[in-house]
């Protein structure tokens, strides 16, 4: 039997009615003759609530216990989805990560998938089960503890299953009807894309477009999984949604094809460190060991051998960053005067494979922002993207102005 993977995000399983609606969609594919693997997220808002409880209980939590708590949301929806399908006379069974088993490494709260042995689920398919409902976002470490795959990780579960089972396609059902030129919730002129390249989707995702988790796009690219994003709220055709495809399949490409933003960024400056070999290594090793995901980095011009080091990281990692910096100072490995934290920043980025061959995009981006009176605090670039850190209050304005100026509302 051909296999299909269908993933339903939080809003698509937010209550029993929505679970029934999603189950009906699954029924349509079962009727076409597919063995279906359904990956479910927790009900909308549930994971946030669980993360909130963990933070309130223990701000610098033990990530093993964080995983024990936050993985639980998906267990509920997996069981409910299996029951709903059974009520529709579709043979279905639920699976938690450890039961599959979905094997990961031990990087709790950010674990990476290492293996998905298919035989347990395949055996059930051979016995007549039509739908395997798998709790997304979770796995099991070599030590036998529950792990989670980072926020938005059910997308990655879905793509990994599609690769492991050689699925014909991996359909990601969500609350928008595809991938847009930017988040349609903050820019009304955002345009739905029929296709997007893996490379661009990877950049958009890693720069904050949460419609797909970055790792899911990486896996789809590596294992050539046919990946589609579509709405669980509309009647679907075989052509619905957005397909993520190889670059060669895109005929025309704009220089800029999307704008992404990441709201919850913080900027930290380590004031007055010595400008000598080894200082950056000390700072960033301590941050990495402390579990801080550093994003942008700038080192100021030094004066009399003293400089400032500025970096950005997610706001919820600032406490860890401060702890790591104070610890290296207390241990005598680093001297600095103070730490300055700016919580009110965000990152806005433009992405496009056309940037490889066309210059001037950065200049245009900076001009657009300056025309809006937006000051740029940090800049980073790569082959196909330019990112800036700006005050958070300008986030929507910056996204809309860039979307307009790069004419993303018009088809290529
Ligand atoms: P799910 O719960 O289904 O996984 P998510 O909330 O994780 O859904 O992702 C879908 C959301 O991603 C949309 O509601 C939208 O606000 C946001 N989003 C951000 N950027 C984009 C984009 N370029 N295209 C589509 N949606 C986007
Ligand atoms: N429930 C998890 C989250 O909210 C995983 C997911 O939905 O993809 O991050
Ligand atoms: Mg998601």
Write the layout of secondary structure elements.
Layout lengths: L2 E6 L7 H16 L3 E6 L5 H12 L5 H8 L1 H16 L4 E4 L7 E2 L8 E3 L3 H8 L4 E5 L2 E3 L5 E3 L5 H11 L4 E6 L20 E3 H9 L7 H10 L3 E5 L10 E4 L12 E17 L4 H11 L7 E3 L6 E9 L3 H13 L7 E14 L9 H11 L6 E5 L2 E7 L3 H11 L7
Parallel strand pairs: 1-2, 1-9, 2-6, 3-6, 9-11, 10-12
Antiparallel strand pairs: 4-5, 7-8, 11-12, 13-15, 13-16, 14-15, 16-18, 17-18
Helix pairs in contact: 1-4, 2-3, 6-8, 7-8, 9-10
The structure holds adenosine-5'-diphosphate (ADP), aspartic acid and magnesium ion.
Family: Belongs to the aspartokinase family.
GO molecular function, one term: ATP binding
InterPro entries: AceGlu_kinase-like_sf, ACT-like_dom_sf, ACT_Aspartokinase, ACT_dom, AKii-LysC-BS, Asp/Glu/Uridylate_kinase, Asp_kin_monofn, Asp_kinase
What does this structure look like?
The mean pLDDT is 95. The strands form 4 sheets. The chain has an 8-stranded mixed beta sheet with strand order 3-6-2-1-9-11-12-10, with helices on both faces. A 6-stranded antiparallel beta sheet has the order 14-15-13-16-18-17. The longest helix has 16 residues, at 16-31. It has 412 residues and is α/β, with parallel strands linked by helices. The protein contains 12 helices and 18 strands. The protein is globular and about 75 Å long. The protein folds into 2 domains: 3-174, Acetylglutamate kinase-like (Carbamate kinase); 259-406, 2-Layer Sandwich (VC0802-like). Bound molecules: adenosine-5'-diphosphate (ADP), aspartic acid (ASP) and magnesium ion (MG). The site of aspartic acid (ASP) has 13 residues, from helix 6.
């Amino acid at each position: 039997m051909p296999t299909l993977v269908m993933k339903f995000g939080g809003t698509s399983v937010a209550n029993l009615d929505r679970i029934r609606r999603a189950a009906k969609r699954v029924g349509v594919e079962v009727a076409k003759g597919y063995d279906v693997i359904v990956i479910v997220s927790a009900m909308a808002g549930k994971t946030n609530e669980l993360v909130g409880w963990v933070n309130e209980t223990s701000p610098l939590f033990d990530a093993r216990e964080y995983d024990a708590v936050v993985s639980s949301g998906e267990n509920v929806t997996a069981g409910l989805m299996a029951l709903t399908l059974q009520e529709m006379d579709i043979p279905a069974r639920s699976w938690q990560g450890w039961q599959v088993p979905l094997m990961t490494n031990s990087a709790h709260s950010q674990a990476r998938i290492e293996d998905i042995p298919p035989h347990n689920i395949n055996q059930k398919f051979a016995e007549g089960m039509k739908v395997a409902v798998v709790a997304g976002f979770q796995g099991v470490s070599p030590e036998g503890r529950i792990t989670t795959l980072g926020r938005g990780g059910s997308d990655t579960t879905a793509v990994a299953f599609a690769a492991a089972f050689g699925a014909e396609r991996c359909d990601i059902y969500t609350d928008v009807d595809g991938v847009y030129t930017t988040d349609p919730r903050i820019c009304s002129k955002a345009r739905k894309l029929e296709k997007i390249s893996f490379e661009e989707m990877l950049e958009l995702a890693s720069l904050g477009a949460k419609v797909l988790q970055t790792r899911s796009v990486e896996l789809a690219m590596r294992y050539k999984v046919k990946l589609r994003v579509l709405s669980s709220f509309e009647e679907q055709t075989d052509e619905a949604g957005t397909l993520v495809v190889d670059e060669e399949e895109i005929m025309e490409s704009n220089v800029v094809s999307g704008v992404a933003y990441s709201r919850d960024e913080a900027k930290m400056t380590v004031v007055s460190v010595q400008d000598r070999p080894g200082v950056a290594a000390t700072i960033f090793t301590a941050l990495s060991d402390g579990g801080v995901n550093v994003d942008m980095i700038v080192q100021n011009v030094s004066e009399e051998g003293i400089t400032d080091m500025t970096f950005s990281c997610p706001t919820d990692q600032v406490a860890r960053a401060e702890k790591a910096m104070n610890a290296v100072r207390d241990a005598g490995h680093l001297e600095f005067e103070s730490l300055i934290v700016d919580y009110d920043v965000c990152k806005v980025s433009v992405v496009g494979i056309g940037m490889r061959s066309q210059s001037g995009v950065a200049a245009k981006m900076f001009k657009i922002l300056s025309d809006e009176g937006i000051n740029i605090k940090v800049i980073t670039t790569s082959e196909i993207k330019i990112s800036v850190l700006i005050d958070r209050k300008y986030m929507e304005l910056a996204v809309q102005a860039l979307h307009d100026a790069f004419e993303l509302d018009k088809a290529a």
